[in-house]
Amino acid sequence: MRYYYYYLISIIVLIVDYITKKLIATKLVIGEEISVIGNFFLITSHRNRGAAFGILQEQRTFFIIITTVIVAGLVWYIHMVRKTAKPWLLVGLTLVLGGAVGNFIDRARFGEVVDFFKFNFGSYTFPIFNVADSAIVVGVALILIDTLLASKDEKKIAQADGKDSNEEQNDNEQQQPTA
């Protein structure tokens, strides 16, 4: 598959992220909740002026600069590895790209991001998140899997090279005449 087809993943993430955030922002009042699965999974209307888990609140300029650098780096890296990367790495990178751009657009336009997925585990409430956040997390997981598999492959290659070197050395020793 041509590498630029992977950018469709980013576009799909952007579209789904935009539509869901727009629906939440226009249909729910901030703080309103709709139960999906009892008190475990709720759709809520929440605004986040920070990063993941609400850290770094009110740092709009910082996020715009950092996200611009990250997006440029992702596009550059995707282009550099397009011919050699495994599909799950390209999928992971484009998921992260789509999620980063989705949240960037909100932050640049409104100074905040619309979050709406809320999960409760007993008395613990997981930080509220959105589609872009989900894409970033899944993308990072795929990148980590690729990294782990690549290092495993490199170890196998190194071991095979070591065996080949030992076999060559043994062959050379056997071929040399003794004095």
TrEMBL record:
Leading EC class: hydrolase
Record-linked PROSITE patterns: SPASE_II
GO biological process: proteolysis
A cellular component annotation (GO) from this entry: plasma membrane
Record-annotated membrane-spanning stretches: 6-24, 62-81, 88-105, 125-149
Family: Belongs to the peptidase A8 family.
Official protein name in the record: Lipoprotein signal peptidase
Species per Swiss-Prot/TrEMBL record: Paenibacillus nanensis
Gene: lspA
